[in-house]
Design brief:
Elements: H1 10-20, E1 24-26, E2 30-40, E3 47-54, H2 60-73, E4 77-89, E5 94-98, H3 109-119, E6 124-127
Parallel strand pairs: 1-3, 5-6
Antiparallel strand pairs: 2-3, 2-4, 4-5
Length: about 130
Amino acid sequence: MAPAPPPLPCGLRAGRAMAAVRDVVIDPEGTFKYILVRLQRPGGGEQRDIVRGTKAAEFHNHIFEKVNPEMEKLGYECKCLGGGKIEHNSKDKKIRVFGLSTGYGKADHSVTVEILKKEYTDYEITWSDDKK
């Protein structure tokens, strides 16, 4: 058996761990609440924004309450930047981002769309400030 490779310097480990966190985790179909979350290492440094959304959440904070402990275990601080709704039509390959969160305020939907485009490259993705 080959010897284990030497440990990575702390910064590289952190970078790989952050890279392992998926940019987008949303339901495959339907209309549901979503939040835009900023991940950051304690004390500053590397940060990135991720999108999480699900029909299972009655309120936006339910999504954050699930994501935050998962990310804390990986060594990140989380901040919810806002929320809204996503309408995901996988058959027609369309996603619409709209609305707002009463508790967290409106996410910057243009940022959300750019993140979604990385994952859903062959989709038509739009956003609006419409409430419905």
